[in-house]
Amino acid sequence: MARINLLPWREELRAERKKQFTLNLVGVAMVAVLALVGADRLENSRIENQKQRNAYLEQNIAKLDEKVAEIRDLQKKRVQLIERMRIIQELQGTRPVIVRILDQLVRTLPDGVFYTELTTEEGMITIQGVAESNNRVSSLMRRLDASEWLQDPNLDAVVAAPEFGDQAATFTLTVGVQLAKEGEANGESDA
């Protein structure tokens, strides 16, 4: 015998499907919310991790900046020390030359001429003095010109000085200095 169901089964099936759909929809929504919360937490943990890494890098950068500043300061001090050493070596190298030049100034001084002031500046010596006559000044200039350590004497001024005598004159002249003599540059000396 055939079974015929006259109950409204389609409505029950529809209601069951609707209930199943609603449950599926709620389940998917819950899974989506959980996925969003999980993704948000994951992203927040990544952001926190990156912030910690940035803070660590900033601390190390600050330490390195201090070291770089210290290195720059040390390099500046090194340059200053090298410059001082160069000046000292230059002075040590020219020390015997200065003695030779002063010796030449004394040796070239004729009788009747007196130096009152000597000044040096960049390889030039300015001499001020008193001479008994103009001829003595000329003799001084010839002797300076003949010197192997002095060169190019140039008379700047001659003024009569009656307080020192009838023909006396005060004079100012400049003379060049030869700092590098061949024997001195090689460390040899005449003494």
From TrEMBL:
**A UniProt-annotated Pfam family:** PilN
Sections of the chain in a coiled coil: 47-91
Alphabetical UniProt keywords:
Coiled coil, Membrane, Transmembrane, Transmembrane helix
Q: Does the keyword Disulfide bond apply?
A: no
Q: Where is the chain membrane-spanning?
A: 21-39
Question: GO BP, one example?
Answer: type IV pilus assembly
Q: Which InterPro entries match?
A: Extracell_DNA_Util/SecSys_Comp, PilN
Q: Does the keyword Membrane apply?
A: yes
Its protein name is Fimbrial assembly
Q: Which organism is it from?
A: Luminiphilus syltensis NOR5-1B
* Organism placement in taxonomy: Bacteria, Pseudomonadati, Pseudomonadota, Gammaproteobacteria, Cellvibrionales
